[in-house]
Specification:
Elements lengths: L1 H13 L9 H4 L2 H16 L15 H46 L2 H24 L7 H23 L2 E3 L12 E8 L8 E6 L2 E3 L2 E4 L1 E7 L4
Parallel strand pairs: 2-6
Antiparallel strand pairs: 1-4, 3-6, 4-5
């Protein structure tokens, strides 16, 4: 009976009947549920949006131009620094290479300074032997000694030239304070004043660098 009564009320309501206040249908009407669902759906749709979906404000042209100018200045500054660093490294490389080359060329400079003194002694000895071994002197021993000293002197000068050591020949040339040292003045007879007339000690250069100045006498005008 209870089930039939419920079915009748449901049928009555479905056919347009008015429910009584306080009835179950009035409290829990499908229309009420539908309205609440719509409100929830509408509330979800109108709720706060995802901040990531908010449109970002584009930067103004003035701001972009200012940033571009700053970036260009930074690029120029870094480029200039790179060029300076590259030039400095190249200068250091060249100086180091020059230092190494000079060390190879002039590492024997001190040895050469001592060796040219031996060459001076040998040259003076050969000149003395030449004076004794004149054709008027029939002594064959002195002649052989002179010939031997001459060969040694020639060989020594050849070894000097092989290693870049050369003897100066300043006679008849202009005086150069970087290569010559004046020890006396002589009358200018047949030569121009200021030229070198004689050499009292030979000078030497090692690969173009003077390692010993030549001691010379410079011609000057004679005062009557």
């Amino acid at each position: 009976m209870a089930a039939r009564s419920s079915l009748r009320r449901f049928a009555f309501i479905s056919l347009g009947g008015s429910p009584r206040p306080g009835s179950l249908y009035f409290r829990k009407s499908p229309c009420v549920f539908s309205t609440a669902a719509q409100q929830r759906s509408t509330g979800d749709e109108c709720g706060p949006e995802d901040p990531r979906d908010e449109p970002k404000h584009p930067l103004s042209d003035c701001t972009l131009e200012h940033k571009a100018i700053k970036l260009e200045e930074q690029v120029r500054d870094l480029t200039e620094r790179y060029r300076k660093a590259l030039a400095d490294s190249e200068n250091v490389r060249r100086r180091t290479q020059k230092f190494v080359e000079d060390a190879k060329l002039f590492g024997i400079q001190s040895f050469c300074k001592d060796l040219v003194e031996v060459a001076d002694i040998l040259e003076k000895t050969a000149e003395s032997a030449a004076g004794e071994a004149e054709p008027s002197n029939p002594n064959p021993t002195l002649k052989k000694i002179y010939e031997g000293l001459s060969l040694i002197e020639a060989k020594l000068q050849s070894v000097f030239a092989k290693h870049g050591l050369q003897k100066m020949n300043p006679v008849g040339g202009k005086y150069d304070p970087y290569d010559h040292e004046i020890v006396c003045h002589v009358p200018a007879e047949g030569v121009q004043p200021g030229t070198i007339a004689l050499v009292t000690q030979d000078g030497y250069k090692l690969h173009g660098r003077t390692i010993r100045h030549a001691l010379v006498g410079v011609a000057v005008e004679s005062q009557e």
